[in-house]
Amino acid sequence: xxxxxxxxxxxxxxxxxxxxxxxxxxxxxxxxxxxxxxxxxxxxxxxxxxxxxxxxxxxxxxxxxxxxxxxxxxxxxxxxxxxxxxxxxxxxxxxxxxxxxxxxxxxxxxxxxxxxxxxxxxxxxxxxxxxxxxxxxxxxxxxxxxxxxxxxxxxxxxxxxxxxxxxxxxxxxxxxxxxxxxxxxxxxxxxxxxxxxxxxxxxxxxxxxxxxxxxxxxxxxxxxxxxxxxxxxxxxxxxxxxxxxxxxxxxxxxxxxxxxxxxxxxxxxxxxxxxxxxxxxxxxxxxxxxxxxxxxxxxxxxxxxxxxxxxxxxxxxxxxxxxxxxxxxxxxxxxxxxxxxxxxxxxxxxxxxxxxxxxxxxxxxxxxxxxxxxxxxxxxxxxxxxxxxxxxxxxxxxxxxxxxxxxxxxxxxxxxxxxxxxxxxxxxxxxxxxxxxxxxxxxxxxxxxxxxxxxxxxxxxxxxxxxxxxxxxxxxxxxxxxxxxxxxxxxxxxxxxxxxxxxxxxxxxxxxxxxxxxxxxxxxxxxxxxxxxxxxxxxxxxxxxxxxxxxxxxxxxxxxxxxxxxxxxxxxxxxxxxxxxxxxxxxxxxxxxxxxxxxxxxxxxxxxxxxxxxxxxxxxxxxxxxxxxxxxxxxxxxxxxxxxxxxxxxxxxxxxxxxxxxxxxxxxxxxxxxxxxxxxxxxx
Amino acid sequence: xxxxxxxxxxxxxxxxxxxxxxxxxxxxxxxxxxxxxxxxxxxxxxxxxxxxxxxxxxxxxxxxxxxxxxxxxxxxxxxxxxxxxxxxxxxxxxxxxxxxxxxxxxxxxxxxxxxxxxxxxxxxxxxxxxxxxxxxxxxxxxxxxxxxxxxxxxxxxxxxxxxxxxxxxxxxxxxxxxxxxxxxxxxxxxxxxxxxxxxxxxxxxxxxxxxxxxxxxxxxxxxxxxxxxxxxxxxxxxxxxxxxxxxxxxxxxxxxxxxxxxxxxxxxxxxxxxxxxxxxxxxxxxxxxxxxxxxxxxxxxxx
Lengths: 684, 303
What we know:
Radius of gyration of chain A: 39 Å
Shape of chain B: globular
Helix content of chain B: 40-55%
Number of helices of chain A: 26
Shape of chain A: elongated
Oligomer: heterodimer
Structural class of chain A: alpha+beta
Number of strands of chain A: 19
Strand order of the largest sheet of chain A: 9-12-8-2-17-16
Strand content of chain B: 15-25%
Number of strands of chain B: 9
Structural class of chain B: alpha/beta
Largest interface: A-B, 22 and 23 residues
Radius of gyration of chain B: 20 Å
Number of helices of chain B: 13
Order of helices and strands of chain B: HHEHEHEEEHEEEHEHHHHHHH
Strand order of the largest sheet of chain B: 2-5-8-1-9
C-alpha cells in the first residue's frame, strides 16, 4: 500500500468515479448489441476492480496485470473478428481501450480522458444507425457525459439533479452552434472506405427468383423505398420500380449470370457509359428521389429507362441502376426516367442478346413448350401469343398468396394443374412460354405500387410491394413490359397487395395491426417523421449543403459565408449582452426610484455624484453644503422622492417628475449667479 | 407625542452631555421593546444612561452588579421556607422590575448570564417548576466592559442576539466635557429627573412604532442589506431573520422619534451599526466596521 499511498491521495472521489462509470454504461449500452459478449464482461470486471480499489480492498493493478489485460483483449479481438480493417473491430478496439482505461483511472486527468473518449464512442454509434431513436439516445448520452464532466468539479456539483441540470443548460446553449455548424461545416467524404458489415441478412429482392420467394417477401411490411416526385407523378399502373432482370432459367430458379450474392461481377460489369446511348434531349417525364433502405445489395430501383446523376450510381444495359457498393445503409439517389415509348426503340438485338433471352433448360415442362409451339404453328405473332396467354390467365387462374407447392415441372404444373399463384408464378410461366414460342423475354423483379404518405408527399414502398413481371422483345417496339399478374388481379396493380389478397394479406402477422386503421395511420405518420428526418438531417451531404447555402446566400463566397456565420453570432452575443444586463438589474425599478436615479445621474454629470449607499437625505444635505446654489432644489426633489418612494404618495411622484424634468444642475447654477460660487466645492 | 419624546431626549441629555445620538438609540431600543447592551470602558456613563432612562420613563428600576461568583438565584429569586407559615415562599429577585440594569454582565459566569436568557426572551421566569410573568414593560439594560478587560466572560452569540442593540458611548467631545466640568454633578442632576410619561403612555408609544409605514422600496433596501450580510465573503455569519426583523423594528422606532410616519433609508442606516454590529461576526475586524463598509457597498436603490 505504501507504494501507492501518493497516488491514493489524489484518487478520484466516489461521486466522480460513479459518474464516470454511469457515463460509460450509457455510452456502451447500445454497443453491447454488436460487441462481443466477452467485452461486456471485461467492462464489468474492470469496473468492479476499480471499485474494489476505491474501497481499499485491492491494489491498483501493476504493470504485469495491465500487460496481461491488454494482451488478452487484443487476442480476444483478433479471435473474434479475424480481420482488422473493418468497422466493427475498430469500434470494438475503441471500446476495449475505453474499458481497460478503467483499471488505471486514478486522477482527475484520467477521468477527463475517459469522458472525452466517451464522447467519441457516443459518436461511433451513428456509424451503425442513424434513425431518430438513436439520435435521441445520442443526445441522452451527451447529457450524461457532460453531467459526468460537470460532476468532476466537486462534491456540490456531483449531485445528480444539479449536474444534469447544468449539463442540460450547457447543451441547450450549444444548440445554436450545432445548427450553424450543421449547415456550414464542410461535408468531407469518407477518408477511407470502411468495409460495411455485409453479413447481415435482410429481406428484399435477391439475386435469384424461385417459387415462394415473393410470397415470403409479402409477409414483411418493412419499408423498402420512399419516393418523392418533383413534378408529374406516374399513374398507379405505371409505378413499376425495376430492380433486377433475370435472364437465366435452370428449370426452377431464375437468375442472372454474373450476379452472385450481392456482388455485381463478371461480364455484367460492362455498364453503359455516359452518353453511349443518347437519351433524348427533351426533358424526362419523371424526376424523383428514391431513398432506399439498406438492402445489402447493389441494385437500385427505378422506373424504366432511368438515369441518375447521383455519384456512384450507374445505368446498366438492362435499364436498371446499380450502385458501386452494396447498399449498407439508407441511400438517397435522384433519378430521371424516360418512359420507353418516349424514346426511340433499340433497333436490333445482337445475336448474343437474342440467345440469352431465348435460353431455356434442355428439358422439362413439355406441355408448356407444346402449347407455345402450337400457338406458333397457328401463325400467331408474338403479340398474339402473349395476348392468348394473358387471356388464359384471366379466364381460369387465381391470384393467391398461398399457392400450392409445385413439383419439378413448375411451369407445366402451374399452367395446367394448380392454376393458383403469386406474381412470380405468373412471371415465371409467362416468360417460359414466350421463350418457348421463340419470343425474347425476361423476368423483371422489383417493386410495384406504393402508398402515399401525408398528402402525396412521398410514396412509401414496402417489402410486400415486391413484384415480378415480364418484358418481351417486339422488333418494332423494343422491350415491352407485360405484367401477367395484371390480367389476373388488376387490383393488385391498381390498389396494391392488401386489396388484392384481402384475407390472406399478412395472415401470419403476430398482431393483425394492419387491420386497425388508427394503427396504420400512426405507422404512416411515424414513417413520415422518419422520412423527413432522413431527408433533412441524415442525407444532408455536400451537394445539398451547397444547394442550401446557395439558396441562402445567393452565391458562395468567403465573404458571404463569413457574414452568414458572423451575423447569428453577433446577434447571439448582443442578445446575451442584453439578457445579462436585464438579469443583473434584478426586478424592475419602481417609478420613483427611476426618476430619482435620473436626478442622480444629472448630478453626477455636473460633478457631484451621490456616494454609493448614501441616503437621499444625507446626499441632499451634502449638496446643500457643497453647492448651495442647488440646495433648495435638491432638497425639494429629495423630499418629493422620499414621499413618493417611502410613503407611497402618488402626488409626490408627480411632483418629483415635474421637478426632475426641469432640473439641469449646470444651467440652474449658471442662472443663479456667479459661476465660481455656483460650482461644487469639489469641482473648483 | 412628539413633545414628550423630545422632552425625554432633552432630559437625558442634561445628564449625559453631548450624547444625543446614543440617547436616541437607547430610547428607540426601548420603544421597539428591545433590550439594550451598552458596551464601554468604565466611567463613560453607561450606568447613568440606564438610570436616567428608567427614571424619565417612570419605570421601576433595579440594578444588579454582576460578579463572577454570582448564581442564577441571585437574579431570579429564591424560595425560602418560612417557619411561621410552614411553607416555602418565593422571594422575587431583581429581575422582577420594569427596568433591570445588569451592570457589567460579562463579569458573571455563563451560567448566570444564561439565567437572564429566558427572562429576556419570554418575559417570564420559571422557578421550582412554576412560571412567573415579569412586570410589563420589561427592559434589560446591560452594560459590559470591552472584552480585552481582565476577568470577563464572553457573552455567547445566542445571548448577544437577545439584545436588540449594542451601543457604545465613547469619550465626550471637548465642549461636552468642559460643560461637565463646569456644571452640576451629574448624580445630583439624575435625582432631579421627573418621569415624563407613565406606563400607558409608553405602551401607546410602543404601539405607534408598529404603525410606522415601510414601503416596498424600503423593504427592498432592507432585503439587499440582509442578503449582503449573508453572501459577502467578509461576514462569517449573516443576519438571521430575527436580526432582520430587529433591524426593521428598531428603524421604525427611530423614525417615530424623528416624527415620521414612514421609514426612510436613513432610519435603517442610523440603527444599522447598533443593531447589526454585535450580530455579525468577522474574523479580526469589528462587526461595526463591517456594517460601515456594508452601508457603502449596498446602494439605496437597486441599480
